[in-house]
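Troubleshooting entry. Yesterday's outputs looked truncated, so today I'm pasting the complete records for two proteins to confirm everything comes through intact. If either block looks cut off, that's the bug. Protein one:
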Amino acid sequence: MSILIKNTNLISMADGRPKIEESMDVFINNNIIEKITKGIEPKKGTKVIEGTGKVTMPGLINTHAHVAMSIFRETLDGYNLQEWLENKIWPMEDKLIGKDIYYGSYLSFIEMIRNGCTCINDMYFLPEYSIKAAVETGVRLQTTRTLFSSDVDKRLAELKDLINKYKDNDTISINVGIHGLYTTNEDDLKKFLRFAKKQNLHVHMHFCENNKEVQDIITSYNVKNPVDVIEKYFKDIPAILAHCVKLTDKEIEDISKYKNISISHCPVSNLKLGCGVAKIQKMIDNDITVSLGTDGQGSGSNLDMFETMKFTALLQKGINENPKDMPAYEVLKFATINGAKALNLEDKIGSIEEGKCADLIVVNIDKENMKPLNNIFANIVYNAKGTNVETSIVNGKVLMENRKINYIDEKKIYNECEKIIKRINNKQDQGD
């Protein structure tokens, strides 16, 4: 299938191109962006998408999430992290079956498509069911078989099976997901990292989200601070570290020596859990690659990456008392090309360039919340919402056009998710 986006305002996020280009055409052939220029005439059979009054930009990339946790949306209010996990989430998760993971993931993927997020990095259990939902909806998914110090050999075998099964898939990729240092002992960590090196995969791991985790790592690994573990074991292992709320200035400087390490910042979840605010500006000043995540909806509420961009910028300006921090275009990088780099997918996605995969979105800027158009980048970061996204395209396939997703029975997915949460809360018969 060929697609031509006509007369659009292009924000390509590509090095060597202007930051904004007006009246541009983008021609997609099958799943590849084939040509970017003005005045392309559509060939017979080409689907034409009118881009006048709209921005075409890379699809947003969410580098830390737990997609099946959509069913736990707004279960957190009134709990701290440990209370929420022990009293709410873990007892409910014990009741989940594969079908629940499938429908919870499916709901998240619908939310992604509607909000202009085309790629997501997931960490959860029973990943085959999330993958099934991703393949059916068409989104791009990076996932894992979560590893920690329990059933280690079984989990590694399952992860290896995933790697082999999806190694040639266009939209599914795998990483080595280590839950965290505080849930993994040192011997098992070494085993997981040897596996990652052998498979030539990067690591995705929670890191320094709250004070208790920091203290647990220090005690378990007998170190002065958690970054000592990173310096000892991750020197040559590409890794995405999610959260990093509790890193000190010195720890940030130390971790910046390793260009293989990137940070996934999840500001909404960190605020809602009362963890604090990560020192993102300090990380940027130290040339660390920062991308953005939402975490699971249980703590992050939703998957709207526009909201995540806005929180990211405002929080850093506020805590540093410096309005010059976080220029809007740099924040757009966090949600696009930086996310692609973190997932080791920058050769495929993250920017609109000839030869890359066609993962892009069309955003309507001819709406009341985007007028007047004084600064397009600031407007997107501070004023645009997921509802401004009109069209979402992944790997050359139109998943949503004019806000409509025609190939999914959304009502069925909503109803199934309502049944799941009622069942695991014992509010209706188990057989329902």
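Protein two, checking that the full record survives here as well:
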Amino acid sequence: MVSVEQLIGELLLRHNCVIIPSFGGFVAKQAPAVIDFKSGVMTPPRKSLLFNRQLINNDGLLIAEFAVANSIQYNQATDTVQQLVGKWNDQLRKGFRITIDKVGFLYFDSEKNICFEQDRFFNLLLESYGLGKVHFLTESDVQLAQKTTIERAISGSDSNEKQPAILFDTEKIVAETVGAAETKVIEHPATRSKTKAWRYVAAACLLPIAFYSFWLPMRTNVLESGMLSIKDFNPFYKSQEGTYEKEELDKLEKREAYTSLEESVANLPSDVTVYSYQYDEDLYIPVRLPATSNGSAQELETVQLRNADQSTLACQFIVGCFGSEENANNLVSALKTEGIDAYVYDESNGLKRISAGGSATEAGLQTLISNVEAKGFDGWVLKK
């Protein structure tokens, strides 16, 4: 039978929060790798655990996993977990510690507050599976090894063995031959002068700056115009002065006065039923003449506006507001599928308002609302 303690450790490998109903919950947070230069140890990334006594509501994760692992009913698994929680509370009150495998242990302090200490030997982070602590030499270890090597070489110089002892230092290579009369010190030949390299870098940066400090104010008009163009940095570019020629403009033709609606209808043939009336310079209104029309303007009925300037009308029937442009376009497409000439009217407070149409008159607005609501869309009227 799989115990609850085993399941808690296994669940924390896959989840960042495991709640024990009526007891508390473990919350995991990924901690980065740690390098201790003083002790020469690098610890891989791991999960840092905290125990929260306030997380007591059952989220179903632990009990469901316990029921599946032991092939029992959910109610039976709930009773088993509740009995275990009661046992843990009794052990804590008596001063014992509760040990959870791969997780850590719980105990009461002197003020009867529950405390948790994580298991330091098991890493709950799956990405760090198989990774252990990496040990490396510290700076003090390297210095100690160099000092020991030098001491051994010096102490062995009195022996009769004729073996060369080569010592490596940061600036010198010391070659000692055992049994030789003198010790030769050879300077390291691969020394580099860092100052020379920096001189070349500084010269490469300062030369262009010095050149353009002279070129820009003397050869361009940047001081007069206050504007700098990328062409000003090209010393081979030559600007040409602009030449202008005077041309006489043709006299503007006077715009013809708009014909009134009554005059336009009166000049129509008798068999015309639909007429496009020019309301202004850009807006044409299609109107249908009734069968009993006598040509008067009072009997004309505006059928619908198909021009793109519907958004300029005083009344708009708004059917939706969206912060997402994709959702706004989806609603416009759905309305157009139903035969409604919808469009994005404007954007207010970060929301795009979708209009099903506009009207300049109250009667036309009511007709528009009736048509839109008949197709299952509700909205509200926006007046400028």
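Both blocks look complete. Sanity check on protein two: The radius of gyration is 44 Å.
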